[in-house]
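Q: What does the assembly look like in three dimensions?
Context provided by user:
Components: two
Sequences:
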Amino acid sequence: MYRTHTCGELNLTNVGQKVVLSGWVQRSRELGGMTFIDLRDRYGITQLAFNLETNAELCSEARKLGREYVVQVEGIVTERHSKNLKIQTGEIEIIVDKINILNPAELPPFTIETETDGGEELRMKYRYLDLRRYVMRDALMLRHQIAQEARKYLSNEEFLEIETPVMIKSTPEGARDFVVPSRMNPGQFYALPQSPQTFKQLLMVAGYDKYFQIVKCFRDEDLRADRQPEFTQIDCEMAFVEQEDILVMFEGLIKHLFKEVLDKKMEEPFPRMTFEDAMSFYGNDKPDIRFGMKIHDITTLTKGKGFKVFDDAAYIGGINANDCSEYTRKQLDELTAFVTRPQIGAKGLVWVKWNADGTFKSTIDKFYSEEDLKKWAEMLKSKPGDLILILAGERKATLKALSELRLEMGTRLGLRDKKTFAPLWVLDFPLLEWDEDTKRFYAMHHPFTSPKAEDTQYLDSDPGKVRANAYDLVINGVEVGGGSIRIHDQHLQQKMFKTLGFTEQDAEIQFGFLMNAFRYGAPPHGGIAFGFDRLTALFAGLESIRDVIAFPKNNSGRDLMVDTPSEISQQALEELSIQVKKDHK
Amino acid sequence: MYRTHTCGELNLTNVGQKVVLSGWVQRSRELGGMTFIDLRDRYGITQLAFNLETNAELCSEARKLGREYVVQVEGIVTERHSKNLKIQTGEIEIIVDKINILNPAELPPFTIETETDGGEELRMKYRYLDLRRYVMRDALMLRHQIAQEARKYLSNEEFLEIETPVMIKSTPEGARDFVVPSRMNPGQFYALPQSPQTFKQLLMVAGYDKYFQIVKCFRDEDLRADRQPEFTQIDCEMAFVEQEDILVMFEGLIKHLFKEVLDKKMEEPFPRMTFEDAMSFYGNDKPDIRFGMKIHDITTLTKGKGFKVFDDAAYIGGINANDCSEYTRKQLDELTAFVTRPQIGAKGLVWVKWNADGTFKSTIDKFYSEEDLKKWAEMLKSKPGDLILILAGERKATLKALSELRLEMGTRLGLRDKKTFAPLWVLDFPLLEWDEDTKRFYAMHHPFTSPKAEDTQYLDSDPGKVRANAYDLVINGVEVGGGSIRIHDQHLQQKMFKTLGFTEQDAEIQFGFLMNAFRYGAPPHGGIAFGFDRLTALFAGLESIRDVIAFPKNNSGRDLMVDTPSEISQQALEELSIQVKKDHK
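A: Here is the predicted structure of the complete assembly.
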């Protein structure tokens, strides 16, 4: 038996008890004739005390223990003289009478503290040390808790967790697949799933009307910040449901998680917004509604006064920043620099100050009268003391830039508190997206998403106009989940594939099994998938999904700790009937 | 809204209510002027009634519904005239007044019944139809329940469920890896994990002292019956533990599952047996102890009486079959045929009947006196009326054959009831296994298993003698779990790799990250992994793990439903910098 207690549980009620603890040496310090060591494990930190006068030998042994040594100690729980009420065990210490070094440790390459001195690369290489930091422990514990609570809610609602295969069929639609050569079927490959989409639909056909799975998914993409080649979804599907049934069920899930994991009660129904409104008023399809500052279209109010920039622009829109009329030249220059960065790409920024004394001051005073500006201000629901920020140009790009500016202002004004959560359903997405490069439509969600019944009439004549039964759950501007009501009719599914440019033969080869299944009694069905990594990061108040994944990969898809991917033997390649191309050897 | 209730919940308390149900047409029958349809969903079957006299139009509509049509009906819950008390809804029926066909169905290629007429291949191809059968539904629901209960138990014990990566590093030790070519790192490959072994050990180094995960694992083996290329483990690891701590914790898990899932209380501690005893008394390392019939060594009792077969044999052993002295010639011939099959390979079978009247009758009467046979019978704890079955030959092979014979007799005598569960810990496995072909030792469990402290002295002089801190959990002769206390000392780990024939460089390339981790304070640790598919099959009383996997692969590793593995495009191959060898194109 290595321990009677963990390092996180002893307190004044244990005083006088003989205990055995095991853990890591966090730090040690000498104070007069005393040596104190903080012993750490997953559960907490307990102070060990050694007295040079009463036990010189043991004390000098203790002084030799280095940081991160693994030790077992035996001793008596004693009340501390100077208490630390910030930690659970802060009122006691252990007067140690036996030390057993379980494993010595070399000096770690960075400090094992919440604020560490280790750079990202070093921490990834020594991930097992990085994970010792309490900030990482807290993130993984939170992840555990969200997973268990999600399962509890869904199980109570009679969902069945059913595992779908990891080695499936490659399909060229969507992102690139990772593939696995088959040794037993030379020249053939499995693919790793980008999601269990078709399998969960087949489970609906099979009659399992409530399915879920917390499941790894894989995408071979060029990694941008905050993408991982393998990531985890809470994947769900239901049969005999309409969109409303799904929204209610999964709003329930999210509320359950907020309540059980973060102790936040969300009593009101989540607000809902159409894709069109999201684009018009927030400039993107995942609005952060922790704050208002909606975008308003002032195009018609600005035309014909001789200001060429506005007269030439297809769209002019603005946002109102409350109580910012006192912004300095420097602050306004910063905002101009922000919107004209290449990533945002605005040509310039027009600002209008409605000063507290009722006067107006703007960059375009010579074109517009106070009367004109007052009309803009009315449209933007401004009041004296506010600052109006205006961008102009092509509609879509300008809205996008306004969205970025709005978020930046929200951050500057402290309106984006990490501990405030503002969920939002975004509804009525377009079914299809036109791609200028390839001159064809792509499915905005995926090819199995059903069009709205009232819009199917436009499928042939004006496909871009067709809206889908698709929905996203957005929290604080982060898309945490998305889904749709699926097509369950084989003829409509065939039509969709045709609209997406599949030949009949291609559709058959790739999705024949699904269309075949639809011939044998497919129920109406739909579902949703949540990005589990992202949801956890959001709950934890962390920026990057890497911080909530135990062993993430870097931006080149490498695991720096185990040093993979790596070369495999010639024999292995031969067994798989493949070879690496010469120019890459 | 597609339904107010499921097809499994209405009963007499609902009589008079207007309800809406949705489901599949299981079967329909006509009886006088009535048409009855069994409507099926995941939850049960509800009878729909149509009266030709009172609603001719609707009734004729109902008569047109084919098997497996998906329909929605509206009607009134009514008490049945002839009740079916075998099913929950058997006391009521729905007098339907509206039918809505949600999706028609072609005639399925086999009957959707527990006893189906579909062959295995057909059912695999149309797995979505096979899964509609209640026997499959029951298996998947049981699987769901075991998973949730396992998580509940482990979470309550403060285990954290932590996901480890699916794309890891290939290591040549153990079975063959499936590999994934990396597009971003040309010429390099990831491997799919055969288990999360090294990652869970790193989690222990990282201080997460109780870890678990229900996780997919992958092995590219030539598939034998009841093997799958991807399978699922309940994978667990603990730090600061000795073997006893692990046995107690996971005996608790198994008892919890038996109680919560099968309502079977197991109050006694699980029996324990050493590997050596298992081999001596049961002839294999996973004894089925639902019944006794132990193997006894009678070598010394049989020598020197002129029976050459026994005199020449290194080992002679027997089992006692209670109350079988009346076995007929035919039955004994069957047993002889059984043990002399090539798969078992015994040269012949010697039997001794101790008749109820006290006399003996055997195949070897001319060599042995009644006195001799009585001594054997005493050793085997026989009594009058019993039958003794004896095999002779090389020790290991003979014990293996006796094991098969024992199991066969257990089956014949009805001693292997599927609903009786006999768990057993098998302990003290050898650390190493000698392989005659390659003339080297292999790790019996894996290279991270620790030797018993008292045996490490033999690591250099007599490696085969060293026992490991390794244990298996066996239930009814099925190995459902296994694990070990791991090495946590870098020097001992290096020594192990050397004993296993690794060069220092190989060990460094393949497992350097783990040995590196051990330098920074690794705690003592150990763990266990349960075969989740096998455990579920055992609980379900099913023979094959395929019956508890939603979408299994066949013996060639193919998924017949989605038709994979399959070829991928030339463009995809090029992006991955690999090519398929010509002779396989």
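Follow-up: The first strand of chain B starts at residue 18 and ends at 31.
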